[in-house]
Inverse folding.
């Protein structure tokens, strides 16, 4: 999967869920089980290492088989649309975690014994899916400029590989479309500069989440 955002850029977002748990959603632009080097997966994993009772659910894990992915008039596979995902299954996985967060089947760091459980949801188009819109406590949207996003993407090897013209002819136009939709659905999003170092991004989000966790521990 991959993503973009903000100023013709790349996107990653994070959100927190209340009720003795926190959910962090990372949204990135493009579909497929890969990322256009936006940094969302790295950020999520770094946060998981440092946050108590932290689990991660990745939207990448819910893509439908390639045989079920539609193509557009140019022959491009439509991976970056909600219809390419089994969102019902993803919602069921999230609901299962919320019912029993410390015994979830998703990736969990069990080394901490804090009384708050945390869920990081990272993926693409998360904020365009209305059933998810009510669960976030915090949302982060990680962006990189168009040229940097395209450059990073060109360094990655994907299966199946991008056909010629895929980025400019499909990926970027679809991102712009979804970004407009997202702005009409969601609010209270923290925008992150994806050109910053991993350390700076982690520090910014981690400190913000620590404050959010402190609020949840208040009587």
């Amino acid at each position: 999967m991959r993503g973009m955002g903000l100023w013709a850029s790349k996107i990653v977002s994070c959100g927190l869920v209340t009720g003795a748990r926190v959910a962090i959603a990372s949204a990135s632009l493009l579909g497929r089980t890969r990322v256009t080097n936006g940094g969302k997966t790295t950020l999520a994993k770094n946060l998981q290492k440092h946050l108590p009772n932290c689990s991660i659910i990745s939207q990448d894990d819910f893509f439908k088989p390639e045989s079920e992915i539609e193509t557009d008039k140019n022959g491009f596979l439509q991976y970056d649309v909600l219809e390419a995902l089994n969102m019902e299954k993803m919602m069921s996985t999230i609901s299962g975690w919320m019912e029993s967060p410390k015994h979830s089947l998703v990736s969990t760091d069990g080394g901490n014994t804090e009384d708050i459980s945390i869920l990081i949801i990272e993926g693409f188009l998360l904020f365009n899916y209305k059933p998810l819109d009510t669960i976030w406590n915090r949302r982060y949207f990680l962006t990189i400029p168009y040229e940097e996003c395209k450059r990073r993407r060109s360094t990655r090897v994907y299966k199946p590989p991008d056909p010629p013209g895929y980025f400019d002819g499909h990926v970027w136009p679809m991102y712009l479309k979804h970004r407009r939709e997202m702005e009409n659905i969601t609010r209270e999003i923290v925008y992150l500069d994806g050109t910053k170092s991993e350390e700076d991004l982690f520090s910014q989000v981690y400190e913000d989440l620590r404050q959010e966790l402190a609020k949840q521990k208040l009587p």
Q: What stands out?
A: The first strand starts at residue 21 and ends at 27.
